[in-house]
Write a structure and sequence with these properties.
about 25% helix, about 425 residues
Length: about 425
């Protein structure tokens, strides 16, 4: 598997899949003379069993590395062989010849009936390298509600990301720290209570939202678990889980005009259950209720350390000038090469992150003027920050000021102890 930064061709290969009746889809590759072909896709029992294994995965399910590689390879080659057929396949090979040694960038324009499939596992059976496309270049899902354009929605008034750390006493998270750089500011809310999220959202008008915490599918709805504060007489304050449904979060973000990226480091935030309504997932609610250009989530459960490493490396690549889709690929590869002794389960999660897009302008930070952050600290009535497992420490919810160097170790702090923890 490649571990470096992908070489980025400007050209993106677009594949369009449209519903054409029960079990039938019309597929074509975008071009001057796009020619559609009809394909049949009716999952058999073996495919359904494979999907159930992938959907029900956990960090300890695949004890043997070979077991996961067999399942992911079977799924990836099945999807590729079904939907990449002539003339789409011929156009794909022509595209690979045009870009030479550059890594392929694949845009999938899908109907929502196929969102549940793990497209990030796409793999060309004829590729002697044996690599998954999402590990070579990128695999991006384009939401069916909009056709891809070359202009990012709206202006770029800031380079601020609102960062929500939703750690609670009952569901603690390990250490996680972000710091500002010349091109990117983090406005942090710790712990991430829902009322504080609501009150600060309009005030900050962020370019991006990053939620790091727990997520789950429950009672036919997707939830993000915020951190609520409960006072205990006389001085004790407990931080307790506060699950909030997808539709409420989508409505909160729907009125925001500045946001271009929503980043959910939470289990099942982009759930792939085929009988689960897409609009009830966190990702689906955001895409349906907002005009946010990019949404990143987890299509199954994801290990805490894998999610943290993925975020660190993705953001580092963005700051280094990589487009968002290839920055995500850097993050995937970073998960895959995590130390298997310290992180025996994390590396298995490389395919779990998923990116949905409405535009092909992936240069999220390009030409984005640095916003001058206000000097004063943002305060709340009972500010509490939980940075790691253990007792809560009362602090002010502040913006971390100061530029850092390009070194990854200086940009982020990371403590990768072996863990089976899930978000």
């Amino acid at each position: 598997m490649p571990t470096g930064i992908p070489s980025a061709p400007k050209e993106i290969f677009h594949v369009h899949v449209e519903d054409a009746g029960p079990g039938t889809f019309s597929v074509y590759a975008e071009g001057e003379t796009a020619e559609a072909v009809q394909v049949n896709f009716l999952p058999d029992d073996s495919f359904k069993e494979l999907m159930l294994r992938l959907q029900g995965r956990s960090p300890v399910q695949y004890i043997d590395q070979a077991d996961q590689e067999i399942d992911t390879t079977l799924m990836g080659e099945r999807l590729f062989s079904t939907f990449f057929v002539d003339p789409v396949l011929k156009r794909y090979f022509d595209y690979r010849k045009r870009i030479g040694f550059a890594d392929p960038r694949i845009a999938l324009n899908l109907p929502r009936s196929l969102y549940y499939l793990p497209w990030e596992l796409l793999r060309d059976p004829s590729d002697v390298s044996g690599q998954f496309l999402a590990m070579q270049g990128s695999v991006i899902r384009f939401d069916e509600s909009t056709r891809p354009t070359d202009t990012l929605y709206g202006d770029r008034p800031s380079s601020t990301f609102m960062f929500l750390l939703a750690s609670t006493d009952q569901e603690p998270l390990g250490p996680f720290e972000v710091k500002n750089t010349k091109h990117l500011k983090f406005y942090q809310i710790k712990p991430a209570s829902y009322p504080r999220f609501q009150s600060h959202l309009k005030k900050v008008q962020p370019l991006g939202l990053v939620f790091f915490g727990h997520g789950r599918i429950e009672n036919e709805n997707g939830y993000l678990v915020f951190a609520d504060q409960i006072s205990r007489f006389p001085i004790r304050r407990d931080i307790v889980p506060d699950p909030r449904p997808a539709y409420g979060i989508g409505n909160e973000l729907g009125a925001l005009k500045t946001m271009k990226l929503a980043y959910f480091l939470a289990c099942e935030s982009s759930w792939i259950g085929n009988e689960f309504p897409f609009d009830r997932t966190i990702t689906g609610s955001i895409l349906i209720r907002t005009k946010i250009a990019f949404v990143i989530g987890a299509q199954t459960k994801i290990n805490f350390f894998a999610a943290r490493e993925f975020f660190y490396r993705t953001v580092e690549a963005l700051i280094e000038g990589q487009p968002l889709d290839l920055a995500v690929t850097v993050g995937r590869n970073a998960i895959f090469v995590m130390n298997p002794i310290k992180n025996p389960f994390s590396w298995r999660d490389w395919w779990v992150p998923v990116i949905y897009a409405r535009t092909t302008d992936f240069d999220v930070l390009q030409n984005s003027p640095t916003l001058a952050l206000p000097e004063q600290t943002v305060k709340s009535e009972s500010p509490v920050a939980v940075l790691q497992s253990g007792p809560a420490v009362t602090v002010e919810s502040a913006q971390f000021l100061g530029a850092v160097g390009r070194s990854f170790n200086k940009l982020f702090s990371s403590d990768n102890e072996a863990s089976r923890g899930l978000l």
